[in-house]
Amino acid sequence: MAVPVLFDLRPKERIEELYDFRDELNKLIACYRDGRIAVILGIRRMGKSSLLRSFLNIMEYHIY
Ligand SMILES: Nc1ncnc2c1ncn2[C@@H]1O[C@H](COP(=O)(O)OP(=O)(O)O)[C@@H](O)[C@H]1O
Ligand SMILES: [Mg+2]
């Protein structure tokens, strides 16, 4: 069920669990593909870690 998952206190780790952030995810994928450095900025608990972890989990090789 989607609703309890949204209120989980931990960062999301899978894009299937990530609400919205489609544009941001596509920008991260483009940066990765072009070898550019990306910086994720935002106030606390707006989903920076969730975005990063979900993104890295769709990459074949990554270090967190
Ligand atoms: N886009 C999102 N989809 C689902 N849950 C989210 C999303 N953004 C934030 N959350 C939830 O909000 C809380 C804070 O997210 P987190 O990734 O830790 O934020 P930050 O790293 O910016 O402080 C967590 O419970 C996380 O699961
Ligand atoms: Mg964080």
Could you explain how this protein is built, in words?
The chain has 64 residues and is mainly α. The chain has one domain. The protein contains three helices and no strands. The protein has helices spanning 2-6, 22-34, 48-57. It is globular. The termini are far apart. Residues 48-49 line the site of magnesium ion.
Secondary structure tally: strands: 0
Share of helix, binned: 40-55%
* Count of alpha and pi helical runs: 3
Instruction: Please give the domain count.
Output: 1
Distinct bound molecules: adenosine-5'-diphosphate, magnesium ion
Please state the CA-atom Rg, rounded to the nearest Å: 12 Å
* SSE class: mainly alpha
Q: Report, as a whole number of angstroms, the end-to-end distance.
A: 28 Å
Helix/strand order: HHH
Biggest pleated-sheet summary: none
- Give the uncertain stretches in residue-range form: none
Average pLDDT: 90
- Beta-strand portion reads under 5%
Shape: globular
Feature tags:
binds adenosine-5'-diphosphate; 3 helices; 64 residues
List the helices and strands and how they pair.
Blueprint: H1 2-6, H2 22-34, H3 48-57
Magnesium ion is lined by residues 48-49.
Can I get a quick summary?
The chain has 64 residues and is mainly alpha-helical.
